[in-house]
Design brief:
Chain B: Pfam families: LUD_dom. The complex is a heterodimer of chains A (456) and B (189). Chain A has 456 residues and is of the alpha/beta class. In chain A, 53% of the residues lie in helices and 10% in strands. In chain A, the strands form two sheets. A six-stranded parallel beta sheet of chain A has the order 1-10-7-4-2-3, with helices on both faces. The radius of gyration of chain A is 25 Å and the shape is globular. By secondary structure, chain B is an alpha/beta fold. Chain B contains six helices and eleven strands. The radius of gyration of chain B is 20 Å and the shape is globular. The chains are: A alpha/beta (456), B alpha/beta (189). Chains A and B meet through helix 2, helix 3, helix 4, helix 8 and helix 10 of A and helix 1, helix 6, strand 8 and strand 9 of B.
Chain lengths: 456, 189
């Protein structure tokens, strides 16, 4: 199935699509309000972008420095070249401590590596503790947004889910009530967990520590109560020095949800007394993306989700329609690099309006990259026939002046007289949900020649 | 080849040419020091945090005296000494924690609490209600200044706290008290 087909399914429920669209647009609005209150916002974005450029050009030395410092701090650092190795490393730590149940806070990397499924196969129960993540975990669904994983669900659906699985009152859907139920349910899990896993927002090379940002406090509840803490990070999460956190913490919360900062910005440097702290550094295709000059900027992403909230396609097609861990514009430039054949169509899930690039806090040229991926898809011969045939035809017509004139005239005649089925069929996906504009009697060229005759 | 060597070699082969590390600007709010307290208060109020005066603090805390109170602030007595506890799980019943915060950030209301102030890392999270005491003189303008004012690795753990625990994961409705404290009170000393 293509993105367009999955989006079509999402669009079947028009009221729900509008609701989804408006929910995200509201978040975009909150972002705008708070960003406009910072006069130096554009300079701050530039700083964020420049620091990340410096990171990419020194990624090897920063990672080595991070490992050295972290090791000196008493942290165990692991390196994983791919998802399978990441999963094996996490499992081996848990197996050594005979842990069979863990709590986990949000981590897009562990989603990408399918850690939950892997650990389940090894007989380890994983409890996602972010409220949105717990909801979709109970529903056996992937997240539809990287910051708001359950943004696609209505409170009534969550109420029904909690009634069935957590024993809340039937028909209750008040968010306050449902959140309280989840709090009680998850507090038990926190108190019983022997190991906790989190993602990493930033890793500081200079100090060998990692930073985790949440609003709920779930990452901290897990990590500080469990004797073993494991933090999983992609290689691109490292930043040079502590002072650079000043730039990124100013950018992240504002861009993500329109907050001045996340409620908790936690800095972990050493294991707690009697505890163990592990950091797993993961490649899983990132070094390959680093080598793609035109696409390496995608590695600067700080996972705020602003590009999703603003995207007219994402808002009207939902995160699941992307069929990739990271949906939306940023996901559409990350995923083709992993599997061009499977995800190449995501490069077309965009109007190329550029709004994603405008809101990106680290100035990733997202819409330019989408355009470049389209060219790659075409060069690799992966375009569907519904695109290649019309494009080849258009190419011939547009490069021959006489042919262009004849075809223009023919089309005007044909379109005004042809039966509907000839115009609106499978070869015209554009016409599936749209009407063609009314056909003019003459072309612009003809009109110009007629009305400006004297000036020729 | 070890995965570490493999990854580092691939990075060396694929990374872009040198790019300079930019110099960071001075604190953008440094010139507006007299407005810091007002901004600090306004931002925290917007994230559902309330304020209490030093004079009112002891009587407010006494209101919790039939429940478990941990306090490390002089003049505000608690009824559980956090230093007497070995296992953080023993803090599961704490109703109120009163702790010092090292600095407060005007632009976003964030307050730095390290392991030295918290005693147990989980305390500011596991308590049902939290009071942070921060000195007026310890306010700074923005996060740039905040990171210059603290040493993030001075203790094994430190956190910026900018409100009570919250979530909006159900239909974007704001709910206070997701996993951490259900309320945050700030006392500007």
């Amino acid at each position: 199935m293509t993105h367009a087909e999955r989006a079509a399914d999402f669009l079947l429920d028009e009221a729900r699509t509008d609701w989804h669209d408006e929910s995200l647009w509201q978040v975009r609005g909150k972002r705008d309000t708070i960003v406009h209150a910072i006069p130096e916002w554009e300079a701050l974005r530039q700083l964020g972008s420049d620091i990340k450029d410096n990171v990419l050009s020194n990624l090897d030395t920063y990672l080595e420095q991070f490992e050295r410092q972290a090791t000196a701090n008493g942290v165990t650092v692991h390196w994983a070249k791919d998802a399978a190795e990441h999963n094996r490393i996490v499992h081996s730590i848990l197996a050594r401590h005979r842990v069979n149940r863990i709590v986990k806070s949000k981590s897009m990397l562990t989603e990408e590596c399918h850690l939950n499924q892997y650990l389940k196969q090894q007989g380890i129960e994983v409890i996602d503790t972010d409220l949105g993540e717990r909801i979709i975990q109970l529903r056996k669904e992937p997240p539809s947004h990287i910051v708001m994983p359950a943004i696609h669900l209505k409170k009534e659906e969550i109420g029904q889910l909690f009634y069935e699985q957590l024993g809340t009152d039937e028909g209750a859907s008040d968010p306050q009530y449902l959140t309280e139920a989840a709090r009680q349910h998850l507090r038990e899990k926190f108190l019983a967990a022997k190991a906790a896993i989190t993602g990493v927002n930033f890793a500081v090379a200079e100090t060998g520590g990692i930073v985790v940002c949440t609003n709920e406090g779930n990452a901290d509840m897990g990590v500080h109560l469990a004797p073993v803490q494991i933090h999983c990070m992609g290689i691109e999460k490292v930043i040079p020095q502590a002072e650079h956190l000043g730039v990124f913490t100013r950018l992240l919360g504002r861009s993500a949800t329109g907050q001045p900062i996340t409620i908790y910005t936690s800095h972990h440097h050493r294991p707690k007394e009697g505890g163990e702290m592990h950091v797993v550094i993961v490649d899983n295709g990132r070094t390959e993306q680093l080598g793609r000059e035109e696409f390496r900027n995608s590695l600067k992403c700080i996972r705020c989700g602003a590009c999703m909230n603003t995207c007219p396609i994402y808002r009207r097609s939902g995160g699941h329609s992307y069929d990739h861990t990271i949906p939306g514009p940023i996901g559409s430039i990350l995923s083709p690099g992993i599997d061009l054949k499977k995800h190449g169509d995501l490069a077309f899930a965009s109007t190329l309006c550029g709004s994603c690039s405008d809101v990106c806090p680290v100035k990733i040229d997202i819409h330019d990259q989408l355009y470049k991926w389209r060219q790659m898809v075409s060069e690799e011969g992966l375009l569907p026939k519904t695109k290649t045939i019309p494009l080849a035809g258009a190419g011939t017509v547009l490069s021959h002046n006489g042919l262009y004139n004849i075809m223009g005239k023919a089309a005007r005649v044909a379109l005004s007289h042809a039966p509907r089925v000839l115009v609106y069929n499978g070869m015209n996906p554009w016409g599936k949900t749209r009407e063609l504009p009314e056909v003019p009697k003459e072309s612009f060229k003809e009109w110009y020649a007629r009305t400006h005759k004297s000036k020729f | 080849m070890s995965s570490k060597r493999n990854i580092l070699e691939r990075i060396r082969a694929n990374k872009p040419g040198p790019r300079p590390l930019p110099a960071l600007p001075p604190d953008p709010l440094a010139g507006a020091q007299e407005q810091w307290e007002a901004t600090f208060r306004a931002v925290l109020a917007a994230s559902k945090t309330t304020f209490i005066t030093t004079a009112d603090l002891p009587s407010y805390v006494r209101g919790f005296e039939d429940k478990t109170i941990v306090s490390t602030v002089a003049g505000v007595p608690g009824n559980l000494d956090p230093h007497s506890i070995a296992d953080p799980l023993q803090l599961a019943g704490v109703e109120l924690a009163v702790l010092h915060a090292r600095i407060g950030v005007a632009e976003n209301g964030a307050m730095w609490v390290s392991e030295s102030e918290a005693v147990h890392r989980v305390l500011p999270f596991i308590t049902q209600h939290l009071i942070l005491v921060v000195k007026r003189d310890d306010l700074v303008g923005t996060m740039h200044e905040a990171y210059r004012a603290i040493d993030i690795q001075e203790t094994g753990f430190g956190v910026f706290i900018a409100g009570p625990s919250k979530t909006a994961d159900i239909e974007q409705s704001l709910v206070i008290g997701a996993h951490g404290p259900r309320s945050l009170l700030v006392c500007l000393d």
